[in-house]
Specification:
heterodimer; A: mainly beta; 6 strands; about 30% strand; globular; B: alpha/beta; Rossmann fold; seven-stranded mixed beta sheet; two-stranded antiparallel ribbon; about 10% strand
């Protein structure tokens, strides 16, 4: 159970070793669950803005509300994001502990 | 070695000493830039440091707002420059590029600041450290202000200031900008920072990140997380349970929309209710000013120019100032609470379908007061396509200058039937909204294709708003409105006065006859009767003058074009004179149908009565149902405001878009009005 994604992360290690099959697009994860960003497809011009706000590789995010736009929480900040952009972000659900490296 | 592999960053404090008394080369004034994330309390801190003296203008050659204020530090006048709120200095958005150039001293007319106040939000420190790493890299003397430490304390976020100072290599001052806590210490640090004779000038610096491999954001965020881990005990960010609970309602798919509509309805009701008093004061103030000038200046062209042209014209527009102030006051309050971001979030879902971004709703709301500040506020929209579409459709929303026109037409259509009158008003507003949305969709499918920019919007934690910030914002907006609109409105008022007053013509024979009759009566002692006749003669004279003037001739010239809409040349003059401000048509019609202007000010009902009774030369009434309805629709849709055109020109930096705006709105207004009038005629309502 991802207890609290807000706790301190002591490591900047990315989930690079994660199974590819575990990776899902940001717009399909479940509400209230923690996930770690594994890949951001930067081809969309506007994705940079999202990355500058913390949705970039290695960060833990939580889906607060589904829909289009959806609400994410990253680094303690809620961000409203279009589903179109969210599709470009691949995440791996955090299992067991908050770092999600399992 | 990759950037991602970097574990810690060497941070050096360079001792820089300048010879005593040496000043910055090109300016006597020291300039400090204020940099920080949006929603970190930058405006509040800026206001707390500078007070009322701040000035808002544009960075030269851009539409990005620049706020400059002054403060005293160690008996020295110091310029404080508020840079736009930023998440990064990566030069993606125009704001970021500009901020970077300003901080590096690369912009002309904008000397490089001597120091930086780096604003950090204690409740979201890790995210704020991202921008911090980029700012510190620039190597400018920096003092970090750690804002909202009270909220952080309440959320059990403990920040080790000494460690953070060591990590950042610059002084860190805990402050609460809202209450003023810690500002004295911040000032002391700033004094030390700008003191040229000071023995040491802390020059913050971090080793540049290698942003070359993989995700360029990762390295900095890794660093931010590490610094956060070393400096923060307890939680790293506020939990925000309350915010989550409120958001569950306010960002809900349907409840959120209902909440948004209720909030906006309340704001509008308040605006119209509160503003009516200051509007009355302004009206009577200008009326008083007019009569004072009338007493001192001898009758003639100069008096007419001053009283009718300058005072009447400028007063007719400044009367909307209270509405604009109150609107911006409430918008600032709503923004400060964090609700405005939710409103944009909720509206994005709906407005994106017609190609408008959610953020466009702020200008759209403002447009219901006046299109001029609305177009000015469309700057919240970053994307050029989105902003252009918004600017193009904004004048379709019913501004308050249309209210007197709607009131007049409603009175013509349904005298003493308040329910029907209310429906006419609502219908007019709804038509404007529908027209704007349809046109936005048309532009999306035609000249401005593409989707509106996808939403990426921070939803800050809810908090109590700061009245001082809201007051200062609305004063600031008022200043901009008076300055920008005031100059052009003055010019337009004088121009229209000239057109309506020249060429001079002799009073008509009927007026001269009345005058002669009046003289006979007064000689016979019947003063009351004489006065009535004189008033009647004056009205006839004014009517004749206007008919013979350039405006009157123009009205006659366009009559054939207006005829299919059910308008005669008198209404034509009204439409032309509306370009100063739409409500001018009411006073113009008062003159052309010979009611006398005094009737419009005190009690408008004589005007409405006489308009209803107005007949054409063939004896048919002028204001039939069809004509009234088509006049209403024309006023909903037509672009009749030179001030709006001027501000569109300014904001789009070309004459192309205001011209296009005028053409498309005129074509739209003409065709819809034509259709409606002909249909109503066919149903024998003409």
């Amino acid at each position: 159970m991802p207890t609290d994604h807000l706790e301190v992360a002591a490591s900047g290690q990315a989930a690079g070793s994660a199974d590819l099959e575990d990776r899902v697009s940001l717009d399909v994860i479940e509400i209230g669950h923690c996930a770690r960003v594994t890949e951001v497809d930067a081809s969309e011009a506007d994705i940079e803005q999202l990355m500058a706000m913390g949705v970039c590789v290695g960060r833990r995010i939580m889906l607060m509300q589904t829909g289009d736009p959806m609400i994410l929480k990253v680094l303690g900040t809620r961000i409203g994001v279009s589903a179109r952009l969210a599709r470009n972000v691949k995440v791996q659900p955090c299992l067991g502990d908050m770092f999600g490296e399992g | 070695m990759t950037a991602a592999g970097k574990r810690s960053l060497p941070i050096s404090t360079i001792q820089v000493s300048l010879p005593p008394g040496q000043k910055a080369p090109d300016a006597e004034e020291v300039c400090i830039a204020l940099v920080g994330n949006p929603n970190a309390g930058k405006t509040t801190l800026f206001n707390a440091l500078t007070g009322l003296r701040a000035k808002t203008a544009n960075f030269p050659g851009t539409t990005i707002e620049r706020r400059v204020g002054h403060t005293r530090l160690a008996d020295q006048r110091v310029r404080l420059l508020d840079l736009p709120g930023l998440y990064s200095l990566a030069s993606i958005t125009p704001e970021e590029r500009l901020a970077r150039e300003v901080l590096l001293g690369q912009r002309s007319h904008q000397p490089q600041p001597q120091g930086v106040i780096l604003l950090l939000d204690a409740t979201t420190l890790e995210r704020n450290l991202y921008l911090a790493s980029q700012v510190l890299e620039l190597g400018l003397p920096t003092v970090a202000a750690l804002n909202m430490v009270d909220l952080a304390e309440r959320s059990a976020i403990e920040i080790d200031l000494e460690k953070l100072e060591a990590e950042l290599g610059c002084p860190v001052v805990p402050v609460v900008a809202r209450t003023g806590r810690g500002l004295d210490i911040l000032r002391q640090h700033l004094e030390r920072m700008i003191d040229p004779a000071g023995s040491s000038l802390a020059r913050a610096s971090t080793e540049p990140f290698c942003d070359c491999s993989g995700c360029p954001y990762k390295a900095r965020y890794d660093w931010a997380e590490e610094v956060g881990a070393r400096c923060i005990n307890g939680r790293t960010t506020a939990h925000g349970v309350k915010t989550d609970r409120i958001d569950a309602i306010l960002t809900h798919r349907w409840v959120g929309v209902a909440a948004f509509l209720s909030v906006m309805f309340a704001v509008f009701a308040l605006i119209f209710w509160v503003a009516q008093y200051p509007m009355q004061w302004i009206e009577s103030g200008f009326g008083h000013m007019g009569s004072v000038v009338g007493r001192w200046v001898p009758p003639g062209d100069l008096r007419s120019l001053l009283v009718d042209g300058v005072i009447g014209g400028v007063g007719g527009v400044l009367v909307f100032l209270p509405q604009i102030c109150i609107l911006f006051f409430f918008l600032a309050l709503l923004e400060d609470t964090g609700y405005l971001a939710r409103a944009a979030f909720v509206m994005d879902r709906l407005m994106r379908r017609v190609g408008l971004p959610g953020r466009a709703f702020v200008p759209i709301l403002s447009a219901h007061a006046c299109a001029v500040p609305a177009i000015m506020s469309s700057r919240v929209i970053e994307d050029r396509r989105d902003r252009l579409v918004t600017i193009l459709v904004l004048p379709l929303f019913s501004c308050s200058a249309r209210i007197p026109v709607y009131a007049m037409i409603t009175a013509l259509l349904f005298p003493s039937r308040p329910v029907l009158a209310g429906m006419v008003f609502t219908g007019a507003y709804a038509s404007g909204i529908v027209a704007a949305l349809v046109m936005a969709l048309v532009f999306k499918r035609s000249i401005l294709p593409g989707e509106s920019r996808p939403l990426v919007l921070e939803l800050p934690s809810y908090k109590l708003p700061n009245l001082r910030t809201a007051l200062l914002t609305s004063l600031d907006r008022a200043r901009i409105f008076i300055k920008r609109a005031g100059t052009i409105i003055l010019a337009v008022s004088i121009l229209l006065w000239l057109l309506a007053s020249f060429p001079r013509s002799e009073p008509p024979a009927a007026a001269l006859a009345l005058q002669a009759e009046a003289q006979e009566l007064s000689a016979a002692g019947q003063l009351d009767g004489a006065e009535d006749l004189v008033r009647e003669a004056k009205q006839l004279t004014a009517q004749g003058r206007l008919a013979q003037s350039f405006a009157g001739r123009a009205g006659r010239a366009i009559e054939p074009v207006l005829r299919p809409l059910g308008f005669d040349w008198q209404i034509g003059i009204g439409i032309l004179s509306s370009f100063a401000a739409r409500e001018v048509i009411v006073s113009t019609l008062a003159v052309v149908y010979g009611v006398g202007e005094s009737a419009t000010n005190e009690d408008p009902s004589p005007l409405y009565d006489s308009l209803r009774d107005a007949v054409r030369t063939d004896g048919t009434p002028v204001f039939t149902t069809a004509t009234s309805v088509s006049l209403l629709i024309f006023y909903v849709l037509a672009m009749q405001c030179l001030s709006t055109q001027a501000v569109t020109r300014r904001e789009t930096n070309s004459w192309k878009w205001p011209t296009f705006q005028l053409v498309y709105m005129t074509v739209l207004a003409y065709s819809v009005t034509f259709l409606v009038y002909q249909l109503l005629r066919a149903w024998s309502l003409g």
